[in-house]
């Protein structure tokens, strides 16, 4: 019942919002529906149903459901003012905006469905829904760059879904002798309880397909090419949810399958695969950060870096590393989306995304400028913010298990730290450049995220720690 | 009907799909590409229907009908209409030549047969062969997507890849219908996306050539 609410609100949202022409009404309704989904995801904390053939809510996905709906709600709030300004300046025409809010709800619907689905086929379909909605939104500006970005996203995403679907089929085929034909052999909980009876050689090859397929969507290194373009060219609210949420959902799918492998003693070890992909992403992204000239592209590469850290953490495995991975996932979502909120208003004020044309933001726009400083310091991993905590935990668990790789990871983190600081000094301090027009803005979403990551860095309530600990034990 | 004949016919249908995939690889005219794609979808429909008959699984007939109506009729007709509307029925520009892409196709086929035969040793031979052919079709679809510059031929590559996925799904005994319908839907959605895109690309650049996009690309 409560679970259905998380899905029903966005679904009504899609239907209703695709009918409404006025952007004022639709952006209000968008926020309202996002809030209702968030409220119903809170209810899931109180009351949970047992797993069915289609849906499951357990310790693992409830973290993601809450996070997704919270950031979905704050981004909808941010999007209200942002979109109003884009319409006023004529960057988005009313015609192309008409489906923007409907697509936003369809993205939320897709992500929620993916997170609570117990059926591996349904999970695939819902990740596909979420991806296609963002493909449409990335191209909304209709500039040459935006079209190229969304076409690239569509093509690479298509490659990714094909591989992931093939992997899903192979999982079904591997389970068929043990569980029997039909839907029950696609239910993830059934797969887990029969994990040691699955056909091992098929499961191994299936996981490689899953990892490459969903890894494309998570933006892991050799498959990341769509990510910087999609983040830089789409509207900023979409960059925020792409970075903060959709990448997480793809990683979550990989985690579910990893649990199946971990439960089968004869199967391939997923850890080293995840670790190497993660490490490659961190090192690659850290080096790429230096040459960025576009501020949204800069933070897109930083997202690749953080997805790498998270994949690395889950690759190490064990209670501590999994705990760190989960914490890092939530901290990264909150911080990165807040940074995009700040950048969104900044690029509207300065009418540019070029780092060279931005300077002295702390002097001309104190809230946004210092907000950006805080956000970048947080994402770079300085104490006392939450990202520091999680990165520290990742590193210390890595040093315990694989010191050499941990050293490489630390190098990557330091290189990225340097690049971010370098760019930050350029943007935040010095003589203000360009216009200092005032745009209508709402700081509440950004500030609430910052408050949360600061709180997480200083003090995490014991039952949240218990909760994450329990989840990390589930992950093995 | 004896078991061997069942096996042989499904083998033949899956093999023909792979063959048509190869034919797709070296097409250099837009309309002939679409015609070959139609044959691809028809063979898929036949393969699904045959699997439905062999497995006594009526839902596979639905898959066959979906393949026939959407993939073999509706989508090629729509794309044909788009091509005429946009006046782009000239030669298809390729990144790699036909010869090289066919050779690459051979390697991909060999790879997928080796891998799938080894990995699926525990399952029945029918599933095993279907899977290896399906993987080969998927990989050749991928090859087409990276080997072509033209948006429409990339789309055809994408759709032939999805045909390969459905071939894998119908070969897997007892696979729930959920997945097949979803694949069909995703193709439809993809088509909508593509339709919108082509028109937008058209209104911006007057060509449906991805190179036009790349020139104007931002910083990389």
TrEMBL record, chain A:
Keyword Transmembrane helix on entry: yes
Protein keywords: Cell membrane, Membrane, Oxidoreductase, Transmembrane, Transmembrane helix
Gene Ontology cellular component list: plasma membrane
Entry superkingdom: Bacteria
Principal location listed in the UniProt entry: membrane
Membrane topology: Multi-pass membrane protein
Domain annotation NADH:quinone oxidoreductase/Mrp antiporter transmembrane: ranges: 117-411
Keyword set includes Ion transport: no
Transmembrane segments: 6-23, 28-46, 52-78, 121-141, 153-175, 236-255, 267-289, 298-320, 326-346, 367-390, 402-425, 437-460
PANTHER family assigned to the protein according to its UniProt record, in alphabetical order: HYDROGENASE-4 COMPONENT F
Protein name as annotated: Hydrogenase-4 component F
Organism annotation: Methylacidiphilum kamchatkense Kam1
TrEMBL record, chain B:
Transmembrane segments: 6-26, 33-53, 59-83, 95-119, 131-148, 155-175, 181-201
InterPro entries the UniProt entry points to: HyfE-like
Any one annotated GO CC term: plasma membrane
UniProt entry keywords in alphabetical sequence: Cell membrane, Membrane, Transmembrane, Transmembrane helix
Cell compartments where the protein resides: Cell membrane
Topology in the lipid bilayer: Multi-pass membrane protein
Main location: membrane
PANTHER family to which the protein is assigned, alphabetical: HYDROGENASE-4 COMPONENT E (PTHR38601:SF1)
Entry protein name: Hydrogenase-4 component E
Annotated organism of origin: Methylacidiphilum kamchatkense Kam1
């Amino acid at each position: 019942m409560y679970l259905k609410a998380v899905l029903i609100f966005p679904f009504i949202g899609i239907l209703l919002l695709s009918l409404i022409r006025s952007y004022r009404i639709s952006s209000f309704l968008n926020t309202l529906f996002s809030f209702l989904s968030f409220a119903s995801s809170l209810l899931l904390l109180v009351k949970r149903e047992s797993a069915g053939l289609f849906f499951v809510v357990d310790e693992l996905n409830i973290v993601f459901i809450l996070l997704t709906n919270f950031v979905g709600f704050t981004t909808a709030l941010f999007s209200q003012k942002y979109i109003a300004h884009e319409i006023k300046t004529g960057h988005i025409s009313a015609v192309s905006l008409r489906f923007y809010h409907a697509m936003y709800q369809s993205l939320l619907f897709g992500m929620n469905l993916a997170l609570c689905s117990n059926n591996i086929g349904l999970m695939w379909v819902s990740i596909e829904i979420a991806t296609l909605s963002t493909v449409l939104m990335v191209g909304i500006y209709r500039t040459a760059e935006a079209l190229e970005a969304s076409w690239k996203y569509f093509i690479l995403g298509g490659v990714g879904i094909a591989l992931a679907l093939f992997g899903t089929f192979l999982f079904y085929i591997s389970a068929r002798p043990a569980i029997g034909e039909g839907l029950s052999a696609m239910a993830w909980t059934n797969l887990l309880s029969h994990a040691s009876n699955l056909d091992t050689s098929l499961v191994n090859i299936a996981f490689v397909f899953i990892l490459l397929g969903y890894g494309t969507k998570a933006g892991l290194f050799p498959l990341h090419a769509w990510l910087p373009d999609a983040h830089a060219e789409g509207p900023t609210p979409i960059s925020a949810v792409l970075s903060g949420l959709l990448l997480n959902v793809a990683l979550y799918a990989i985690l579910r399958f990893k649990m199946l492998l971990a439960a089968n003693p004869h199967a391939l070890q997923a850890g080293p695969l995840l670790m190497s992909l993660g490490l490659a992403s961190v090192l690659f992204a850290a080096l790429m950060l230096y040459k960025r000239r576009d501020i949204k592209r800069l933070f897109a590469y930083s997202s690749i870096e953080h997805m790498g850290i998270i994949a690395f953490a889950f690759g190490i495995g064990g209670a501590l590393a999994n705990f760190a991975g989960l914490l890092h996932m939530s901290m990264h979502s909150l911080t990165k989306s807040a940074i995009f909120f700040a950048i969104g208003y900044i690029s509207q004020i300065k009418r540019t995304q070029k780092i060279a044309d931005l300077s002295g933001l702390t002097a001309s726009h104190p809230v946004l400028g210092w907000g950006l400083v805080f956000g970048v310091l947080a994402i770079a991993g300085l104490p006392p913010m939450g990202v520091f905590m999680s990165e520290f935990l990742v590193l210390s668990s890595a040093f315990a298990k694989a010191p050499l790789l941990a050293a490489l990871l630390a190098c990557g983190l330091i290189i990225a730290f340097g690049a971010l600081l370098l760019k930050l000094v350029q943007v935040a301090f010095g003589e203000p450049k360009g216009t200092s027009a005032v745009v209508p803005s709402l700081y509440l979403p950004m500030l609430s995220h910052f408050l949360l990551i600061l709180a997480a860095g200083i003090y995490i309530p014991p039952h949240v720690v218990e909760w994450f600990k329990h989840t990390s034990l589930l992950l093995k | 009907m004896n078991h061997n004949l069942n096996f042989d016919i499904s083998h033949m249908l899956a093999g023909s799909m792979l063959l048509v995939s190869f034919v797709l690889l070296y097409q250099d005219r837009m309309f002939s590409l679409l015609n070959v794609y139609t044959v691809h979808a028809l063979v898929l429909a036949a393969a699904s229907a045959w699997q439905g008959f062999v497995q006594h699984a009526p839902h596979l007939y639905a898959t066959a009908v979906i393949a026939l109506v959407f993939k073999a009729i509706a989508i090629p007709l729509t794309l044909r209409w788009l091509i005429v509307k946009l006046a782009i029925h000239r030669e298809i520009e390729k990144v790699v030549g036909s010869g090289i892409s066919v050779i690459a196709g051979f390697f991909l086929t060999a790879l997928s047969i080796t891998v799938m035969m080894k990995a699926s040793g525990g399952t029945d031979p029918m599933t095993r062969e279907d899977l290896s052919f399906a993987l080969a079709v998927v990989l050749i679809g991928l090859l087409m997507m990276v080997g072509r510059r033209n948006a429409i031929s990339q789309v055809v590559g994408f759709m032939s890849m999805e045909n390969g996925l459905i071939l894998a799904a119908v070969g897997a005994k007892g696979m729930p219908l959920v997945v097949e319908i979803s694949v069909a839907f995703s193709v439809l959605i993809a088509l909508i996306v593509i339709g919108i895109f082509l028109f937008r690309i058209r209104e911006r650049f007057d060509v449906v050539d991805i190179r036009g996009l790349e020139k104007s690309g931002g910083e990389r």
